[in-house]
Design brief:
Length: about 300
Amino acid sequence: MNAQLRDITQANDSPLAVHGLVHGYEGTRVLDGVDLALAPGSVLGLIGRNGAGKSTLIRAMLGLLEPQAGQAQVFGEPALGLSDATKGRLAYVPQQPEALAWLSATQMLDYVGRFYPNWDSGFVKGTLARWDIPASKLLAKLSPGERQRVDLIRALASRPDLLVLDEPAAALDPVARRELLREVALRAGEAGTTVLFSTHIVSDLERVASEVAFLHQGRLLIHCGVDETKERYARLWLPARLAAAAPSGTLSRRHHGDGSLCLVVERDAGGLWPEAAQLGGARLDALGLEDLFVEIAE
Ligand SMILES: Nc1ncnc2c1ncn2[C@@H]1O[C@H](COP(=O)(O)OP(=O)(O)OP(=O)(O)O)[C@@H](O)[C@H]1O
């Protein structure tokens, strides 16, 4: 079953689901009817350009902002009125953690840990040392990357069933990024944690995500398995003499100066490419995830 179909059938028992989400700011619409449901145990990478609305979507999914229309649910509860039990199953790391900045990392983690029954203080101690974090310095005085890593430790130590990370690697160096991705993959594989993370870094997504969702111009244009994208989408080039045969409703369409056309096309429900791809002179090229992202977002 593909991911979009799962959105419909699994929305009810999904750890995190939204339906018909609409939101905007100052008269500009950012989300324009987004439907998304995460399958239990999946690792979903949410990609989109700067300002595409990823943080807005994440915040609305978790009930941190009230959308103008649509519903969000966390473990089947309305996101705007989560019970303490459900809050305890979820951990969220914002793009720029700012909370409790007047405490040191050790003080903050000791304090927050008291609210979680499954708090793993051994993991906290070990990871603070392994990630080389100055644990007695005030959080306000840490570098953005150190601050982000402390917040990741906070999120992981609560042993959540659902982990939501808004650009977790934004301030991390490549070594720290690898460590984080390894930890996320481990959690998903061993503990069955469901993970949603937003990123611009396609290689991070390929390394750890089982599914990808692509947010563009207020809508989710693609939501499918990471491995499935290569099978399902391709770039179709048509010379000028075939341009009139171009299929409509493609994911992207670029006109070249010589009259030729480049389109991102998708297999139909029967697994077939559009008819124009079979015409003599047409060319169909495989697309990696990064190329697919660039072709559509450009
Ligand atoms: N509180 C706000 N008031 C006004 N506009 C906002 C507010 N929050 C976000 N926006 C606008 O909404 C759009 C989407 O922002 P959002 O932060 O959700 O995007 P994003 O995909 O997470 O971006 P990035 O990848 O750069 O972090 C942007 O144009 C942003 O300027």
